[in-house]
């Protein structure tokens, strides 16, 4: 189910489907945290700079939702989110905005979708109390 969401629904042409797929990954990440953190999350991070607008949008939303799900799971056990996400994943999340900005992906036809997705990402990372400094 998780693989199908990542490969087929995250890049769906309909934005509502992409949003629902991201929320479904949030729910499934709590059921399979190890798989989500080690297998799914790196794939999602690599798709955030895809030339395909829909894939970029869906993967950023999914990164936000999966990170928040892993945070909620860690918080239940009084542990930091970094127990589930390694340093490379945390740095990847931190760099999404700057990479989009550097490639001027906030402009043009897809700019509105990118701005909306990054706002969701910022919200979820803030709720997740990510260890961003500086």
Automatic annotation (TrEMBL):
Q: What is this protein called?
A: Tubulin folding cofactor D
Which PANTHER family does the annotation name?
Answer: BETA-TUBULIN COFACTOR D (PTHR12658), TUBULIN-SPECIFIC CHAPERONE D (PTHR12658:SF0)
Q: Which domain of life is it from?
A: Eukaryota
Gene name for this UniProt entry: TBCD
BP terms from Gene Ontology = post-chaperonin tubulin folding pathway; tubulin complex assembly
Q: Which organism is it from?
A: Homo sapiens (Human)
Q: Name one GO molecular function term.
A: GTPase activator activity
Q: Which InterPro entries match?
A: ARM-like, ARM-type_fold, TBCD
């Amino acid at each position: 189910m998780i693989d199908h969401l990542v490969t087929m629904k995250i890049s769906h042409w309909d934005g509502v489907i992409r949003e629902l797929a991201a929320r479904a990954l949030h729910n499934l990440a709590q059921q399979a945290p190890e798989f989500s953190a080690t297998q799914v999350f790196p794939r999602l991070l690599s798709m955030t700079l895809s030339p395909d607008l829909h894939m970029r949008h869906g993967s950023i939303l999914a990164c936000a939702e999966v990170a928040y799900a892993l945070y909620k799971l860690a918080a239940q056990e009084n542990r930091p989110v970094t127990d589930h996400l390694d340093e490379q994943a945390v740095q990847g999340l931190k760099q999404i905005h700057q990479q989009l900005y550097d490639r001027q992906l906030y402009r043009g036809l897809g700019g509105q979708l990118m701005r909306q997705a990054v706002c969701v990402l910022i919200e979820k990372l803030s709720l997740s109390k990510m260890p961003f400094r500086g």
